[in-house]
Structure of HdeD family acid-resistance protein:
Amino acid sequence: MGEIASSWWMLLVRGLAAIVFGFLALIWPGITLIVLVAFFAAYFLVSGVFALLSGFRHGARSRAWLIISGIVGILAGIVAFAWPGITSIALLYVVAFWAIVSGVAEVVAGIQLRKDIDNEWMLIVGGILSVIFGVLLLIWPGAGLLSLVWLVGAFAILYGISEIALALRVKNFTSSPRVP
């Protein structure tokens, strides 16, 4: 299980990217939709690439879910960059479905990693936060993405904190077997 410990920094980068994005969203709530699209696209791409890289580095147990999460993130980033004039409601649905799919993938990966690491709940918490965020966006689509900047920022910060906590836990993972 040394491969999990060797990729701790990827989780750390994902967490730091989420926190930076969250603070930028909170600091500039009047941000234009085009800049918000660029922030989301960049975050989607960074998160997707690192999830994909993690998927290729991990064992078979969590590989498929991390790869799926990475592919979805990369595709969401490409769509956001390709059509920067996208309406706020269309972006809201892209963000909502990305959050739900990647959140479910992280919950499943966390459950599957229960046999390999302690405190896998940090990955599960990040996934649950992602699903809740996506569902909230679907419940209130009429408000538009711009009016949800505070929710987006808060989610990104909380998600980033859970990813960093997981990264630090995984970094300290040893290859000694767990005692039941």
